[in-house]
Amino acid sequence: MESPCILVCSIDQKTGYCFGCGRTSVEIGAWLTMTPEQRRDVMADLPGRLETVERRPRRETRRARMARERDQSE
Fold it and tell me: Where are the domains of the chain?
């Protein structure tokens, strides 16, 4: 199943969009139950949404946390 997730999972409080993929928390939660057409419709909106979010999340993202934990365990 195609997904726009890039493991930067943090929601911009101003727009309600994920910093990484541009989806809302409701869309993220419903992704697996959406039809392929619904997912394509959401994905078509994502580039425009990502232009409206701040470029840096206000808290540590999942990707950054995973990298930090990996570096600490080495």
Answer: 1-64
